[in-house]
Design brief:
mainly alpha; two-stranded antiparallel ribbon; 8 helices; 2 strands; 43% helix; globular
Length: 226
């Protein structure tokens, strides 16, 4: 699998899904888990490259992740279609699940022994769900069913045709992210490298202020983190 990692920090799948955020994160889950189980820490640098690229190239200033790296020609074509009355192109959707896919990938990287700090990026990703988005709206509270709304378009819409539902995989990834955040390891004072090393503590920062921290069992909030 390491041989499929290109110089651009993407796992190559020999089809258009290479450009998609979720596919890179799915691959990282398994890649990092394999590193952990087989005790192959030498491959952690490859995982770091994929995570760094996701932050540098896909994460918007508000913390949302862009779905796909769309070529300029495709952007122009889809934008023209939208002006003629078509629905938003797929690259206009900011999906809640893409936030948790990243969080879960970082959690697997940490468990495998990764030392580069991603706590701040994880915080931004989750904070987008809880109100740091273009609507200034908590997507969990808005849904009224205990899980976040599915998506927000780049122009602030939630009523796009074909997008007013919640997928089971989205719910699963959200729950996985919450349990990963509770189980750790996060907020380690000195993980090692990176500009964010040791500056985020989930017990006294963005996580402690989110609705999810109180909706989760309070008995697990004091669980020790290794």
């Amino acid at each position: 699998m390491n041989d499929r990692l290109g110089s651009d920090g993407l796992f190559a799948f020999e089809n258009p899904t290479t450009r998609r955020h979720q596919n890179q994160m799915y691959a990282l889950w398994g890649f990092c888990r394999t590193i952990d189980v087989l005790d192959k820490p030498g491959y952690l640098d490859s995982a770091r490259r994929v995570l760094d690229r996701a932050i540098d190239e896909r994460m918007r200033p508000d913390g949302a992740f862009v779905w796909e790296d769309v070529p300029p020609s495709r952007r122009l074509r889809d934008a023209a279609s939208k002006r003629l009355g078509g629905g938003p192109p797929h690259w206009n959707f900011l999906y809640e699940c893409h936030q948790t896919f990243f969080v879960n990938a970082v959690a697997e990287y940490y468990r495998a022994g990764g030392t580069r700090e991603y706590d701040r990026a994880v915080g931004k990703a989750m904070a987008w769900i809880y109100g740091d988005n273009s609507l200034d709206t908590d997507l969990v509270e808005l849904s009224t069913i205990g899980v976040p709304m599915r998506q927000v378009t780049t122009d602030g819409r939630m009523d796009a045709r074909g997008q007013t539902y919640k997928g089971s995989y989205e719910v699963g990834s959200y729950l996985m992210a919450l349990t990963n955040l509770l189980a750790g390891p996060w907020g380690i004072e000195s993980r090692g490298e990176g500009p964010d090393a040791g500056i985020v503590d989930v017990d006294d920062g963005w996580w402690a202020e989110t609705p999810a921290s109180t909706s989760a069992s309070t008995s697990t909030s004091t669980r020790s983190r290794s």
